[in-house]
Amino acid sequence: MSLVDDVKTSTLPKLLQRNAEQDPKGAGIREKARGVWQTHSWSAYRDTVRDLALGLAALGFQRGDKLSVVGDNRPQLYFAQLSAQALGGISVPVYQDSIASELVFVLNHAETSFIVAEDQEQVDKALSLKDKLPRLRWIVFDDPRGLSFYDDPILRSFKSVLEEGRKFGQAHPGFYEAEVAKGGPDDTAMIAYTSGTTGSPKGAMLSHRNMIATAEAFLEVNDVKPGDNWLSYLPMAWVGDAAFSLGIALVARLTANCPESPETVQRDLRELGPDAMLAPPRIWENMLTLMQIKGNDASPLKRRIFGFFRDLAERCELKRTDGRGLSLGDRLGLALGEVLVYGPVRDQLGLRKARWCYTGGAPLGPDTYRFFRSFGINLKQVYGATEASALIACQPDAEANPNTVGRPIPKVDIKIDDRGEVLLKGPNVFRGYFKQDEVTRDTMTADGWLKTGDAGFFDKQGHLVIIDRAKDVGKLTDGSAFAPQFIENKLKFSPFIREAVAFGDQRPFVVTMIAIDMQTAGTWAEKQGLAYTSFMDLSRKPEVAAMIGQEIAKANATLPDVQQVRRYLLLNKELDADDSEMTRTRKVRRRFVAEKYANVIEAFYSGASSVDVTMEITFEDGRKSSLSSTIDIHGEAKAEPARRAA
Questions:
Q1: Which is the most buried residue in 214, 352, 363, 566, by most CB within 10 A?
Q2: How far apart are CA 616 and CA 61, in angstroms?
Q3: What is the mean pLDDT of residues 422-442?
Q4: Global pTM?
């Protein structure tokens, strides 16, 4: 029987109560503060949520009200979401790095009346928008540092609300328990805003049933044990964090662990050694870049050892993928490599104990995927959508494949329509978009299937293959298929390329705009004796352009002739979410980028050797500036011979 069918476990706050009763001393959530891991037991977790909920009630929070949390991953922000849900309210997490205009849109659209902010930075941002948020009644802050002399009447400290809650609880015994009992599985638990790749974000209403059923389905096909450590470091506004740090953590009694800060994530990850991990492609690409940098900086002997065992591991991984057995020499080499290279690398990444890891949110290039699997990391693909409570399909341990996203999770049905779009039905499908009934109807078919907007198909093994966003899949003028993400992922395997945006739909050949990786490209330039002062200066160096050309040639060697990149340029700034070029989850907003750089695209295909570019830069407070320069366009990057696999 599903948990949602039991009145005692049909909502997230009820699951918290169950965990506190069944495992009161077990670690519910943990945070790193001032260098020390501090643990909240399940009973302490429940008590804090109860006291905070009572405090919110004392401040006037009522059933149906919306509470937004903004900040880095902190236990107090998870407590706040559950407290709102316990009172029949709805949590609305927002991205902590959102600029003012983005926050105003989401907070107003969601009708947020309470904000729980992490620290002074987020409080300042909220206060600056106060006059534009007519429904806002209270701002509750967690970290009091820097806020001692703030006297705005709308402000309350997290500690004071807890104290207010204890007093309210004494005056109204049984109030909290009665409110929790009123909650049902079909109540809206949270509004998760989409990343907005095609326009303004939309608020997907997710019910308790959605989140609990999704968690149960995921647990059926993955090795998850009570007490497993999970690192909660992904943006709280991303539905993937809510699915794991709240949904799966409460259903399976995982221990969520909040790092000290975004800057210490890698160090805290290594120190914690989680049992499982989810990361978007950008994180895996960053890890790969880190390993490549360390390898290049090592002594000649260590570089040769690392290169030898890396090549061995990749050859053996390809053999496994092809269903071929390993020779005795392969097995002995892997055993030695485990001692000298693979184990130490996993330890450096903090993944020595991880039984499984997932990549999701966007496609991960197959070369990057195979690199981690070849080093003994059980990396698998997961596929999901905000409207599907984060999870749709995932790969079983024995069926990992860089070219698929696995099988549908239990109780989820998937079909491909006659246009190649992926459709699904299941208990994970959202209740609809908040205040956007017409858009909701457009997202659903007449017979109740959710349109994902992704183009895909099932392979012979029954695994789902996602080609690209349906609207992004196109054709070259000769009729050849053009899937930009596939090409971009090949390019981003290079440690020197941070982002790539490919164009080619209804064009004779493929071109790409490249944003270099400042760290790795800068290190390379220093070794070449090239002086530079800024990102723009570095990207304009002819030597850097030539080096990137060689990296593109390597990627071209793995692509069909017709899909190879023929022309490229190096952008004079990074693609930035603040400039609307990317979403907060690091997905390229293709339509916007194509419009913004329309003159660049035309220059590519007109044969021009350079193009004048004016880029608008947006600051956090909404102020704008511009950056103008002439950028060189480089000719065809010739393909290098592909390295043969053993």
A1: 214
A2: 41
A3: 96
A4: 0.84
